[in-house]
Amino acid sequence: MATITDADAVLGRLPTQQRLAGSLVLDVDAAHSALIAISERFGLDPVSLAEQALEVAHFKMAEAIRELTVERGLHPRDFAMCAFGGAGPLHAAFVAEELEIERIIVPAGAGSFSAWGMLQGDLRHDLVSTYYRRFDAARDDIGAVLDELRRRVTERVREDGADLSRLRYEASASMRYVGQEYSLLVPIAGNVIDESLLETFHDAYQGRYGHAQRDAPVEFVALRVAGVVSFDRVGVSQTEPPSGMATPIGEANVVLDGTLRLTPVYARDTIGETVNGPGIVIEDSTTILVPAKWSIRSIDGSHLLMERSPV
């Protein structure tokens, strides 16, 4: 079965100078064989199939981002993209072009960025209790339900051996207009159930759907309590960017825009001043593809910024 990695390999976007995870050599011949098995069914050559497969993949990635932005009234072009993972920076520029995004940040340690992010996270336990009540009839026992959830959350945190002095609680309620099937999660400040919570729900509904029914009856669906223990954060060490222009460590035959091009390959730790695409930047844990009309440079010492040139 062929994969997106096979398509990247066939198009030369994973240079032979690179060792995956520092030691693994990519089998480009096997990638060709995998694509040939499919391309023959469609009357295509492997290179054309690889290009079309990546076009579809980039479009689907862009669509997923549109669901999180455009459908909420946000336009992706107003933001910078953060590209991480082993292959994220390899595809980022093409996805960004689909979304009219002109700046891409490739963080330090991009290949292990998700793992680093997990280590920055808090210890968290969430508990939920079904609680069907009209808002105007819920104030008598809601405090007792939240207190019981806090007690249970505290036991979970204690079992983990965490420092209870760092424990904080976050209470929230799933609320909706009576008669609706979907609900919104609304934070409960200070265990207080009053008109301010109702207004918070209306405001959240307005922000999510563009309108609110402030005179309509509201009901609870569930109550939630999260127990959160914060840990000390680990920062990213800052380094001075290299001075001068980066010198390629080699070249690779790369298919870009349907054309085979001899493309310079750079080591990431040599990128300082602006390098114009096309080019490929490699390190042990990720690959960065800088197409034509894009550039890349170091920012804040440890991170890289890709920018799209005006057309």
List the helices and strands and how they pair.
Blueprint: H1 4-10, H2 28-42, H3 46-68, E1 81-82, H4 88-98, E2 103-106, H5 113-119, E3 123-134, H6 142-159, E4 167-177, E5 184-188, H7 195-209, E6 218-229, E7 250-256, E8 259-267, E9 275-276, E10 279-283, E11 286-290, E12 294-299, E13 303-308
Parallel strand pairs: 1-2, 8-10
Antiparallel strand pairs: 2-13, 3-6, 4-5, 4-6, 7-8, 9-12, 10-11, 12-13
Short description:
The protein is of the alpha+beta class.
Characteristic key phrases:
single chain, 311 residues, alpha+beta, Dna Ligase, domain 1, five-stranded mixed beta sheet, four-stranded antiparallel beta sheet, 13 strands, 31% helix, elongated
Give a structural overview.
- The protein is α+β, with helices and mostly antiparallel strands.
- It has two domains: 4-115 and 249-308, no CATH class; 123-229, Dna Ligase, domain 1, CATH 3.30.1490.
- It contains seven helices and 13 strands.
- The chain has helices at residues 4-10, 28-42, 46-68, 88-98, 113-119, 142-159, 195-209, and strands at 81-82, 103-106, 123-134, 167-177, 184-188, 218-229, 250-256, 259-267, 275-276, 279-283, 286-290, 294-299, 303-308.
- The chain has a five-stranded mixed sheet with strand order 1-2-13-12-9, covered by helices on one side.
- Helix 1 packs across helix 2, helix 1 (4-10) packs across helix 3 (46-68) and helix 3 crosses helix 4 (88-98).
- The longest helix is centred in the first third of the chain and has 23 residues, at 46-68.
- The mean pLDDT is 89.
Number of domains: 2
Please count the helical segments. Answer: 7
The low-confidence runs, each spanning 5 or more residues with pLDDT under 50, are none
Q: What's the overall average pLDDT, rounded?
A: 89
The portion of residues assigned to helices is 25-40%
Gross morphology: elongated
